Amino acid sequence: MPSVIIDNIEAVPGLIQRLYTISERHLLDGILSSIDNSVMRTKRQLITIYKLVALISENLLCRQTVKRPPIKIQGQRRAFSITSPLNQELRPPTEKDEELSVDALGRPTKKTNLYTAINQAMDIALATDPKALLFGEDVAFGGVFRCSTGLREKHGADRVFNTPLCEQGIAGFAIGVAAQGHTAIAEIQFADYIFPAFDQIVNEAAKYRYRSGNQFDVGGLTFRAPYGAVGHGGLYHSQSPEAYFCHTPGLKVVVPRSPVQAKGLLLASIRDPNPVIFLEPKWLYRSSIEEVPIEDYEIPLGEAEVIRNGEHVTIVGWGAQLLVLEQAIQMAEEKLGITCELIDMKTLLPLDIDTVVKSVKKTGKLLISHEAPKTGGLAGEIACAVQERAFLHLEAPIKRVTGYDTPFPLVFERFYFPDALKNYEAIKELIEY
Transketolase-like pyrimidine-binding domain spans which residues (predicted)? Predict the structure, then answer.
């Protein structure tokens, strides 16, 4: 997120108007991320920043306008409730938002967005495990996406703390404390920044148990990283690196699609006896809202989920791409009169191919979609595994709808993104084959 440092309060109105055109929802985070006690500020700068925050907060809460109508999804079963972060109506919280409900299992729930669900999971992990540590760049004051807000104050500066701006160092430290018996929750500020830590993760964390003959391990190790498109992210804040790590035995790779999934999967990841890469779809941080159980719960790793039943096409995705696929399925139902079976992989390493194969044997057609580039992407691995086990059941070539084999562009982001229309066209081609 952009840091905003200005000395002239007269520039504030123009700055507010300019930043509105970028992203209302992330505006305050960008400004607050500049208030880092590890960086020296003059008294005048700090006063100006706080005045700016106050002005923006007041303006945002009073406007209550939207540029376009929120996205609505209708179908047999909704994967999650969401509106686009650039379209979402901004309003102060109401008493209704604080009301508790009860889910199908009788658990008390509360309306929660995805980043708050992540916060709750880490809060529970720190509260239930005295050896748990949370650290990363800017984590102490909440992080750029506010996922760790309030945890330092609640659990102490010796358990929730900042690190230097060095991903290799973060990973090395995480491996070290995990090897000594601690539960390490390491945040990589953006998944795009994880590559300097690649050697530590792939050659150390993933192989620690194997090379010691199971005498030592770093099982209590989780790397959290926001991934994927967010709008205006450009080359270095939009990448989806899951395929790199899915080629690494010894790791687990997990991607949630919603707040309920995020909380349960993160707690399961933190407590798993293997190092886990937990990729969080940053587009959904504030825009995906669900009734999330308040209590401690886990969602098993390694199990895909059929979130929508259908008869004609099997569609596979994960993370934020599930929203796009829901929209494409709705278009296909309305225009083609068909039903599609939608599967959320949730855990990408290990892959639950059994669930996909079972569905393909019923539908005869398969579409796989992800944001990452096509070549070397996980869609190719899933497609190969399915044709090895269900070739005689396939009624059409397997389709992949992915990002292009280029860096993630800024100006042409909308053209790069594997949106609902591209996925609908692929569904149509499968049906007409």
Answer: 112-287
Tokens of residue 139, six digits: 């984590």
How far is Cα 261 from Cα 269, in angstroms, rounded to an integer? 12
Enumerate residues 6+ apart whose C-beta is below 8 A from 113: 259, 285, 286, 287, 288, 289
Residues 348-358, buried b or exposed e (16+ Cβ, 10 A)?
Answer: bbebbbebbbe
The pLDDT confidence band at residue 47, using thresholds 50, 70 and 90, is low
What counts of helices (H) and strands (E) characterise the chain?
Answer: 15, 15
Closest by Cα among 21, 90, 92, 6 to 51: 6
Asked whether residue 71 is domain-assigned, the answer is no
Instruction: Quote the domain boundaries for residue 426.
Output: 305-432
Average pLDDT on 174-185 reads 97
Whole-model pTM: value is: 0.79
281 shares its domain with 310: no
Same domain, 198 and 276: yes
User: pLDDT of 322-371, one tens digit each?
Assistant: 999 999 999 999 999 999 999 999 999 999 999 999 999 999 999 999 99
Last residue of a domain, one of 262, 293, 324: 293
Q: Are residues 147 and 31 in the same domain?
A: no
Whether residue 308 contacts residue 401, with contact meaning beta carbons closer than 8 Å, is answered with: no
Written as one string, the DSSP assignment of 154-187 is: HH-TTTEEE--S-HHHHHHHHHHHHHTT-EEEEE
With a cut of 60, say whether residue 56 has pLDDT above it: no
Q: Do 254 and 323 lie in a common domain? A: no
Active-site residues: which are they?
A: 167, 237
For strand 340-344 and strand 313-317, is the pairing parallel, antiparallel, or unpaired?
Answer: parallel
Q: What per-residue string of b and e applies to 119-142 under the rule 16 or more CB within 10 Å gives b?
A: bbbbbbbbeeeeebbbbbbbbbbb
Shared-domain flag, residues 146 and 237: yes
Q: Give the pLDDT score at 100.
A: 84
**Structure tokens, 58:** 């007041």
